[in-house]
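Task: complex structure prediction.
Instruction: return structure tokens for all chains below.
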Amino acid sequence: MSDAILSLEHLSVRLPEGADRPYALSDVSLSIASNEILCVVGESGSGKSMMANAIMRLLPNEVRIEHGRMLFEDRDLCAADVAEMREVRGAGIAMIFQEPMTALNPLRTIGDQIGEMFSIHTELSNAEINARVLALLADVRIPDPKLAAKAYPHELSGGQRQRAMIAMALALDPKLLIADEPTTALDVTTQAQILKLIRDLQQRKQTAVLFITHDFGVVAEIADRVVVMQHGRIVEQGTAGEVLNQPTHPYTKQLIAAVPPLKAPPPRPLSSQNILTISNVSKTYRTGGFLGRGARITAAVRDASLELPKGATLGIVGESGSGKSTLARCIVRLIDPDTGSIVLNGKDWAKLSREEVRRETRHIQMVFQDPFASLNPRRKAAELVAQGPIVHGTPRATAIAEARKLFELVGLDPSAGDRYPHEFSGGQRQRIGLARALALKPEVLVADEPVSALDVSVQAQVLKLLADLRQRLGLSIIFITHDLRVAAQICDLVAVMKDGAVVEHGVAAEVFGNPQHPYTPALLDSIPGGEFAREHETVSM
Amino acid sequence: MDALKRYFRSPAAVIGLILLLIVIAMAISAGWLYPRDPLSLAGRPLIWPFASPRFLLGTDNSGRDIAAQIFYGARISLLIGGVATAIAILIGILVGAFAGYYGGWVDNILMRITDAFQTLPNFVLLLVLVAVFGSTLTTVTIAVGIVSWPAPARLTRAEFLSLRNREFVQAGRTLGMRDVKIILGEILPNALPPVIVYASVVMAVAILLESALAFLRLSDPNVASWGNLIGLGRDVLRVQWYVSAIPGIAILATVLAVSLVGQGLNDALNPRLKSR
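Output:
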């Protein structure tokens, strides 16, 4: 391609010895033309972020480029020295990161940090720099640029911080913008706005964008061309339409099939008997203040009422800060609700004392979000699963034997019980977490974002397992998620939360098909990929 | 196993370990090499080192064998260092664990007590304790332990604060575990590595504190300790400087050994910090 801004030719990046594979990238060739958005998509560990860091020459010390060329403006970046790279970074190629909070310096104002781009690379006067900074902040549509320039990073919302990062990246009109999962840490409505912003700015400034993501929805939303990566190799590349609609490589097909579509499965008959009834639960946090003065009061959950029929799955969806996790923790009494009742099997769970909760806890169990943080790293897998029954009086040997049986139930090798958590992959760990919850034979399972830390293909497997277990064990599940596509897959009933309150609830197909509260369609519309997400073929659950 | 391999890769850590093993060997072999009481008169006073084949390291102002006192002193230093450290770490872990896990008023009360101990200089507090309870080996050891616990307590508390909200701790609670089991069985093993490393600092300080006390002649005079010998040598420091210098070197070597081992443990247990 003649008008290529950046082309990688047979690039190979070597990992240090002892890594899980010898090369982070092997024989990667691609090119980005000016004025196009190239999406690099792949699962975790596919080498996509390593590629971004290789282009910026920001690889960790023990990782090095073994061979290949990276041509940018007739210059081979592989051969550039430190001084040359300094000129390229920021001015020629700019980068935005996944987590804007950690990428910004917390001790300096936004305006100061953006202005630094000019003071390093240009000879502009302070007044000119200030004017440019304000113009940039207006460009990325931050509500009040003057105020935002004086603000510190923690004073802005996540979406505004990412806008500030984009402003900083675009300050010197770079030829190429590398965006490494820039919307992954954001809520879905904010994500939609940021994607639109990147698209608009790219078209106006004719910048080339290398957009790294794991989400095919985002790809469908923004990409001109797509590169699919697996294990450090490019398995397929082509225009967005080709790759999304006629994928040729089996891995691409598998990835696309694993993306959950936003279509509720046909409704299942629900029991008329409620196993869990939540009425008027509220939880308020008070922080700071002295003798009640100047305290900050946050209503995390406001007057939430929900019902869970026996054997059904109730999805609670909402953005971060909507109170869904707090509600889940109130239900299992990790947090004590201020008011309201939570009736399980005729007992008001909210009124029980700590000691009673401890004894009754086997009726209701929880699966956690983070498969890395939720397992004690110093215990073997079988022990982790057996812990619950042991606490409740089962002899150790029996509990361990039962744990091994549970391993089979959740699709793990029973011999894996002797291994430590760090020896398992994310998906396997989540299965261990599930086995641990099931070991107490609960009637209700509360799952807090159980699949959101997993790759999309693994996500599909875990969801399938959950649906299967629900059937076999007659479980009733409360499923907390921020991802409406996931909720549509598994939930019979859906409740939408916003600012601590349940704004809408009902049968999944009803809520998605005929939303009543204005917030629900707004949430549905911001799912990236629009038509693609609704229509594409998928594996049946 | 990996940690052990990483430990032996560092030359400083290996040297520290060898030094420490030598000191331990001295302590063990003292009774066998010098069967007589090290505090009994053995020969002429103030014989210079290497001057007499009977007294390899010479004799002190009252004619006692310095080599014998060094060997027996190793026992006292290790005993005080070990026991005082154990006391300090135990109190520290208990206070830190409960303060960190429960937070709120429990944390407030325990931490204000810790503050009270920390605001007083260690050594002054130690002097007070010894002045009140007398200076036998037991009271000195316990007193050294009691003045050393605040730092490990703060360290343990910090670890607990960051660990107590981890999901695996919450998982323990949803399984119905009692608080004590969560604190001791779930959180503590994860909080322990930095505390173990810090124990080496406590041990080195404990040995120094005892020596300082002995130098002021406030430690137990009825045992052969390095500090006592330095204190004795003070009177003849200008001419027969070796009386103070030899136990001084022994203390230096032991404290160095303990610190190097502690540093080595730290690097071995937190490999990521080292490469930074």
